[in-house]
Amino acid sequence: MKRIVFFLIVTLLYSAPCFAGKRFTFVTVDFPPYYGENLPNKGWVSEVAIAALKARGYDEVEIRFIPWIKALEDTQAGYYDALLGAYYTGERADLYYFSAPIGQVRTGFFKRKDVGISFKELTDLKKYKIGVVKGYATSKKFDSADYLTKVEVPNLDEGLKKLYNREIDLMADSRAVGKFRLKFLEKEIPGIRKEIVFIRPFLAMNKIYVAISKKATNAYRKLIDFNQGLRKIYFRGIFIKIKKKHKKCQRQREKSYKECVEEKS
Predict the structure, then answer these.
(1) Domain end position, chosen among 170, 190, 206
(2) Which residues, in sequence order, are CB contacts of 185 under 8 Å at separation 6+?
(3) What is the block-wise mean pLDDT of the chain (265 residues), using blocks of 10 residues?
(4) Count of domains in the chain?
(5) 39: three-class secondary structure by DSSP
């Protein structure tokens, strides 16, 4: 009988951490309006990720924002548990476990309004210099197009500035993120929003995921926990509530985006 009681106590002690004292660390880059260091609650994707993990007993969730290439290096080394908001690629799948998708992002090209660039196929763009953020995935076809002249930039803001200054002809990135960053850059470079436009066709509709480093402690367990938490908040309506709250607050004018989100949280 004593052995049975001892076994039950040990079992409870080891099972208790499943819902107490668990920690999860994310690292990522500013990617507004989806997630960003200066966004309310760090953006709707961040808020969803935190809610999903809280639903599985993670009482400490950290999100750090650093340059993307550094985020890749640090997660691959196991310094952080996961990337927040990564696109799926075959190469990354060797290094990360990918969660269920959280959202989706349209990617394509920005150009100067006064420059007559159009295309149907990527081969039509051979004569142009195209900016790309170092370490970013854009689309499978574009990323493997070695015949294109690609100019690496440290971040999207620098790429948009180079585009404005005619140092490059096109800048590859997300439509929503580029438009958001142009609003921010307008304070530094008045008129830049009117001079830079997004063009079609889109390159891809990329889903965004949590990518858990295979070198993270209990990596596969964390993948299961995140997916179960995401499913839980989705069926409880929390996922949709968070997303709608942020989108509505971005559009309204009576209050700031931050004030609106804080009021509705």
Answers:
(1) 206
(2) 157, 160, 161, 192, 193
(3) 37 40 93 96 98 97 97 97 97 98 97 97 98 96 98 97 98 97 95 97 97 98 98 98 93 81 84
(4) 2
(5) coil
